[in-house]
Amino acid sequence: MENARYRKKAMRIETQLLGKLAVFGQAKFAKFMGVHESQVSRMKEDFISKASMMLAILEYGVDDTEIVELARRFAAVLTNKKAPAATEADSQITINF
What we know:
The chain is mainly α. The protein has helices at 2-24, 26-33, 37-45, 47-57, 64-79. The N and C termini lie far apart (33 Å).
């Protein structure tokens, strides 16, 4: 039962990491890491899922509000709609990559 909980949390972490990588850009990420872009592509196949499981087991937290905001950004990109502007009465969530 506990293993299933870790797997579920690991999947959420992996989704978040891959989403951030997609937004940041694979080529740009590879440049900052000092590796070739193909190595980042290989990391997505195996390393990120293992690292995600490790983080889940070590109780690394995933902030649900970040996932929701990331999903909104993806939806805006896919539908070519601009995100609503933040007003003084509204609070905007910022995700730093």
